[in-house]
Design a protein that fits this description.
The complex is a heterodimer.
Chain A: H1 9-14, H2 29-48, H3 55-79, H4 83-113
Helix pairs in contact in A: 2-3, 3-4
Chain B: H1 2-19, H2 23-43, H3 47-71, H4 83-104, H5 133-141, H6 146-167, H7 179-183, H8 187-190
The chains are: A mainly alpha, B mainly alpha.
Chain lengths: ~130, ~200
Amino acid sequence: MVEHWTFNPLVLGSNPNTPIFFSFFFINMEHYLILSTILFFIGLFGIVLNRRNILIVLMSIELMLLAINLNFVIFSNSIDDIIGQMFALLVLTVAAAESAIGLAILVIYYRLRGNILIEQSHLMRG
Amino acid sequence: MLFLSLSIMLIFSAILVISAQNPVHSVFFLVLVFLTSAFLLFLLEIEFVSLLFVLVYVGAIAVLFLFVVMMLDIKVTKQEKDFMIYLPMGSFLGLIFFLEIFLTLQENFVPFLPLDGRELYTNWLNSIDSLTNIEVLGQLLYTYYFFYFLIAGILLLVAMVGAIVLTLNFTQKAKHQFVFKQILREKKNSIYLIK
């Protein structure tokens, strides 16, 4: 029996003593995981279906890394193991470093080409 | 209810990130995605990682994106008909890939199986020690996993040096100070009397 009030959906979903009007529907861990998977696939679609500029690719990579981070933290919350959150911290560090380098390369690309359009990037010039 | 509204807002903002016409609007919706995911983590009673998401993702990465969007001349192009060529096949493959993961998630996870009447959720707050999220991470990060912490620091250093080295432009003329010339100035060199 949970003796402390909580809005934690994973607790409300698994506790049979929760009154029904207190939660809209019983949320399991699978709901969070499906959310994180949808986010990952939106980021993947952003890379594949991109026809405009290269900045959308970098933002989609950040979306995918955010989805993976959420995945780690959700599993860490349900298994009661803190190592998931620690790994999420390190993945956060890697995401920040990689976005910095990616944007620096984008700036140089713009300096050389004058634009960052996808359509003109397949032409191999010197 | 809160989870439902937040998740709808999250998916909506994520779709608008990749499909907004103006890239500045894309970055704004990316900030909204980060904030919404931080709020979702707040619901799980993970407060440190949630605030860390706000600090690092919004405060560093989204600000980087805003700087680049401000500096570059990004042309706002209209929706071209090339978009529709890849959409059916791409979404079909993506749907298959997504259904694979979705069907995998339908299985039961072990902690949620009620085994002989044991409590499914251990009330740690009633234990003798109660630790916050920061304390738990701090007890592990600096003692058992200090190597990863140091490696993360070196990684950030390398990224910083790399970003500076890539974008440093030596051909721009900057005004330099020649200190030795300033020191060598004497009164007989600098003051002239003109009749």
